[in-house]
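Figure 3 (text version): structure tokens given as input.
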């Protein structure tokens, strides 16, 4: 079982206008800007199997 300790890391990032326009139009990643960016990050990590590898190491 994966034990998750809730640690938070705050970041300030810059996203080009064209990229942000695409992100704003996304459906299914959440309503708030933060939810959309986090959803994209989680999707990428899952697609690349990083989440699976991390949980196997635990």
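Below: residues designed for each position.
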């Amino acid at each position: 079982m994966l034990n998750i300790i809730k640690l938070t890391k705050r970041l300030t990032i810059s996203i080009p206008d064209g990229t942000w326009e695409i992100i704003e139009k996304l459906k299914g990643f959440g309503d708030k800007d933060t939810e959309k960016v986090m959803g994209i990050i989680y999707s990428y990590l899952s697609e690349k199997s990083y989440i699976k590898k991390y949980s196997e190491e635990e």
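Residues 29-58 form one domain.
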